[in-house]
Amino acid sequence: MHGARAVFSVGARFLLCASGDFVKMYSVATEELVQLLRGHSDLVTGVQLAPHNRLQTFTVGYQLLALYALPSSEDSVFVIIPKSGERDTFQLVSVKLTKAAGQDMEAKELSVVLEGVDASPKCTAFGREGEYVASVKDVNLQVYFFKQKQLNRFSLRATNKKGGNNVFTCVACHPQEDCIATGHADGKIRLWRNFNHKKEYTFSTLHWHHDKVLDLAFSLEGTSLLSGGVESVLVQWHCGSDCKRDFLPRLGSAIEYVSISSDGTFYCTSHTDNRITIINSNLRFSKTIQGLIKARDVKTGLVVDPRTKALVLNGEPGHLQFYCLQSDKQLYSLDIVQQEYIHQAGLNQSDLVRVAFSAQGKWLATVEEREETDLELQLKLWFFDEETQSFKLNTRISMPHEDHITAMCFRDTDEMEDDSLMLVTTGRDCVFKVWVILEDTDPEAQQSLSWSCDFVGSYHSYQATNCCFSEDGSLLAVSFEETVTVWDSSTWDLKCTFCHPPGKIRSICFGRLTCSKYLIGATDHGFLCCWNLLSCALEWSAHLNVVVLQPDPLSEHIAAVSWLFKESSLFVFKPNEARPICIQRKFCKERIQFAAFVPRDVPETIGSEKYLWLRRSQLFFLTDTQELMTVSTKSAQERLTLSSKQLAVEESLPVTPFSLLLGKHRHQQSQGDVDLGKIVHHHHEQDSPAVKELLHTPAHVLPSASFLCPIFINSLLVSKENKSTEETPDEVEMESEEAEDDSDEENSVTEMKQEDKMPLESLGETTHRLSKSEEKELRKIRKVDYSWISVF
Amino acid sequence: MASYKPVVIPAVPKLGEKITQDTLYWRGYKTPVQIKEFGAINKIDFSPVPPYNYAVTASSRVHIYGRYSQEPIKTFSRFKDAAYCATYRDDGKLLVAGSEEGSIRLFDISGRAPLRQFDGHTKAVHVVGFLSDKYRIFSGGDDYSSSLWDIPSATEIVSYSEHSDYVRCGCASKLNGDVFITGSYDHTVKVFDARTKSSVMTIEHGHPVESVLLFPSGGLLVSAGRYVKVWDVLKGGQLLVSLKNHHKTVTCLCLNSSGQRLLSGSLDRHVKIYSTTSYKVVHSFNYATSILSLALSPEDETIIVGMTNGVLNVKHRKPEESKEKSQKKRQPAYRTYVKGRNYMPKQEDFFVSKPGRCIMRKYDKLLKSFQSSKALDAVLEPHIRLYTPEVTVAVMQELNRRGTLRSALAGRDEKQISLLLTFVTRRVIEPRFTPVLITVADMITDIYQPVVGQSALVDKQFLRLQEAIGREIDYQEELLEVLGMMDALFATLTEKRATYLEENKSNGLTKTLDQDISI
Fold it and tell me: Which UniProt keywords are listed (chain B) (predicted)?
């Protein structure tokens, strides 16, 4: 959700913001996604409302770095582009627009306005009625007057006497007076006046921020100036009296952009953690638009909350976010650390590092740590309160281990009895500890349940690295560097040890269901080992550099993600056979950090035997760059209909005229597509559910045509899906975005189509490829249909 | 949107004795009154009728005390040798006492001379009592016999010679006028029925029995010797529970007025109070010397303990505190509460919501506005520093987390440094504060290193800090040594443990409560 300032539509009813390749339109009142504007094939870098036509917007992307539209110059916009031939130099150019407002425009007429500007859109601003343009770079401010064709340059010394850093970070121009506000790296804001004279310019300084000013914005009348920075405090300066200012503190994370609606009733701040806050003009917090919050560092891994099936991971600093995959919304954020977070660079603040849920989601265990000269550790156990429907802190244990906690797991027994519940933590202090619930029989005590340590185990003073309970909870496997030890969980006797030298154990897990007699371990020397617990012998081992080992809780399948030659590959196998069921080589160029199986609400019917393992749960990955990905078997349309509103589909409904019309249209289409090849045809015959749903739903319950149309069009765009991801990476990615109906860019889910791999290898590439002309034809159809919507 | 989060003050579980309803109840006694008697006090008995006088048997006398009197209001001293076990009848009018010479004397409370004298025992009679039909007396003597006497005719009805050692304790059933129980040094407790010629039940206690007690319901019998054992009479004398909380012989037993708590006094100078539902110790009292007798007045108003050195320890319950104090505080009038709150906004009104006022501590307010130095000052106020040091330390930790602790500590004058150092010296050895306060001490020494030697006061404090830390290091070393020794001991013990466990399993039927003896 970043990359550009968010823009309010006229009347402040909608908010437009750039999000990856799309522009998203949110309702200000309900914070819901209203519309997704597609068209770019690369990052959108700027969004502006067209000054004369209230309903039009300009968007730019790909190599155009910033966009400005002025009411005074009707038919031209200003963009920042890299100077041809030189790297890292950018120029501001004005582009004449052709009247035909098409989808894409090829700019023909360019006239350079300013050279050597900063690439950031924050560093250039247009003054009162477009009379001048101000741009800052490093320690230089340049102002260009259009009428006089005069360029004034002002420069500051790089550092002043007090050690302040004078580098400019952003600029804003007063809407009615000749006044420029500039933000600096040391937190100062300078207000420049009288800058049309080269020598007699003046500036005054405002100072509150202790770190970089990240964005500035003047209010509509210019009476106040808004500034935001790393402190995550929105500061409102009243221009009349210098020192008066208002604050809106604790906005969650650093403010990247500040924007103001055209009628001045709303402010909006975009934050670095992928969130937009809408604020009333009286500095009251109003709404927040957020998807998956981008944490600085996901340490907890991907955990699935058994109660809500939500994905749980680090959110805001010190918080745990519960992210619903179906609705792409944050369900809630649980404050774990419960300390005031100081937004200041270089501070060591406690953060959440480990999370574990008990089998029914009744208990939540969290570990937070803060490391400075000595380590501060806290283990917290939270109890789910049915009344308030949230987790309540039950026990807090400070310094549960003397060193970092490496892993933590609950004993997953399905019985509801509490006394079988058990938590195991492993630490780098060479021990693992078992925690159990103590029941206080005293009726006067405040809370009857609390956790305490039951057993401390160690093995030859090796560091404990991983722990895992078997499915029935009778055995506990703890890995100590190179050795896996298996303990009886009732008597805490060491049963047996496994070792596969050389290489330390990276992760371990027990097999499930029919494979519960196997224990799987991955070593950092690139071996995947499977031990038989009955014979205490190595069953098989494979040479594979496994980074993530994730068992499916509902089946016996285990997913292993390997990292080889800078590419991640996925292997799915059953422990009882050494041969993997499914291999997805090189599905991602980034290193996979974590994976999680999310159980499906309804088991899916999957035709292909290859994807049978995805029947009951879905696999999600988190990469190094915090992108969330999934493995999917379904075609795009199906996914979309699922995520869209659940419409009542009944076969017995009478055929509506609309469906007849569409049906006829579809028939024609499919006939036209016959020559596209067998596979395409085949696909059409299996009757995509999107179309089916469209036809069988009575008109009065159908959503708006603009909503249905993309689904319909996409259902016709079958040919693309037959292409593999490697061949057309950007297109597939775009398509996957459509499929997921995501609201933020980092959720770009790479689809791996059913037809992706195997048929491709067997049948060869040519059969799947469309000829250029056919592709064009399809594009044309799409364009036509879009215009048809706008008529509506 | 998030509001300011106050500093979390880490709660530490309170060590030591837990405060329960029981401890509060049993602590509610005034400081004891000590009365010196002539010899060891072998029996204290409360009159069952108001004004609840009590008879104390010591040496050759039986003294009757009023509840609040320090001097005996009446004395029976017609004994040639020691008197034993002066006991009231249910109506509080008659008193019976045994004696060393073997005779049993019956007194009228108002008179002086004995009404009756029962002769028949050949040796000392240590236990006498009334049956609940009021007209018979049972007794047990050192001649191994226990007898039943008729009061009107002063004759022996029946004599049982079933015990094989001294009979030293006994009690009568409150429900059945024919049943009484005696305990003897032959390790048995026998239940007699006056209608039969022999005992109806014999319970093997396992140790010389010093005291027996029958619950008011008659279903449970408590016997005390080395241990206190509770028996189920209705199940034919099955052992219910064995209480091994005293480490010396238990000499006396007593129930409280509600029957919910059992008290036992022992030669180990403790009185322990058990819950009769869980048979766990809920409270205990300490006394100066070994306890021989114990009595609790109706409504638990007074606890009296008699000791071997002849001291009578009387504790009276504190009067209930009146709650007038809290009522004096005037509450604001009702109209101040509803002022402006019952106004319903009309449709055209613009509603401006006022956020609820949150009350913050002073240091939180200062921390919220990033005034770290002042926040530190605020928590060094005497009442916070002395009574809630955890608050001070938590704020120091918070400042450290914010990276402003050094600047907050810097720039202080002599008095403030000395105050800080006193606090650190005193608290640095507490394990929960140690990590934070070591950082603080480090910073203080760093900051004020250049000015060492300028102030005698500060120098003295530094030396004291050094001393405290040096002492703590010595302690830790010693503790580690002890730990090492214990490890060595445990290592030798582990082999024996396996057999020990098996033993425990074999006698699993008898439920024993192995509690820490010295609770």
Answer: Nucleus, Repeat, rRNA processing, WD repeat
Q: Give the torsion through C-alpha atoms of A126, A127, A133, A135, to 10 deg.
A: -80
The pLDDT assigned to A721 comes to 41
Return the residue in B1, B279, B399 with the most chain A beta carbons within 10 A, the one to mutate for interface testing. B1
Tell me the C-alpha distance between A183 and A160, whole Å: 15
Q: In the prediction, which pLDDT does A752 show?
A: 37
Residues of B in contact with A350 (CB under 8 A): 401
Q: Is A6 left (phi over 0), alpha (psi -120 to 50) or beta?
A: beta
pLDDT at position A371 is: 82
**3-state SS class at A739:** helix
Asked whether the predicted pLDDT for residue A129 surpasses 90, the reply is: no
Facing B5 at nearest CB: one of A340, A346, A444: A340
Higher per-residue pLDDT: B437 or A150: B437
β-bridge mates for residue A130, sequence order: none
* Cα separation values, B51 from A277, A281, B46, Å: 78, 80, 10
Q: Is the pLDDT of residue B379 over 60?
A: yes
Beta strands across the sheet bearing A483-488 = A464-469, A475-480, A483-488, A494-499
Tell me whether the omega of the peptide bond preceding residue A502 falls within 30 degrees of 0, making it cis.
yes
- Cross-chain residue pair A285–B20, CB shorter than 8 Å: no
Among the listed residues B431, B361, B429, the one whose alpha carbon sits nearest the alpha carbon of residue B398 = B361
Mean pLDDT to the nearest integer, B66-83: 87
Residue with tokens 């913050």: B360
In chain A, % of residues over pLDDT 90: 5
List C-alpha distances in Å: B52 to A134, B55, B66, B300: 101, 10, 7, 11
Task: Choose from A231, A253, A290, A340 for mutation: most chain B CBs within 10 A.
Answer: A340
Distance between CA A610 and CA A18 in Å, rounded? 38
Q: Is A790 helix (H, G, I), strand (E, B) or coil?
A: helix
- Return the amino acid letter for A722: N
DSSP B203-260: EE-SS---EEEE-TTSSEEEEESSSEEEEETTTTSEEEEEE---SS-EEEEEE-TTSS
- Pick from A252, A335, A398: which is nearest to B10 by CB? A398
User: Is the predicted pLDDT of residue A528 greater than 90, yes or no?
Assistant: no
pLDDT of residue B343: 78
**Whether the predicted pLDDT of A201 surpasses 50:** yes
pLDDT at A778: 59
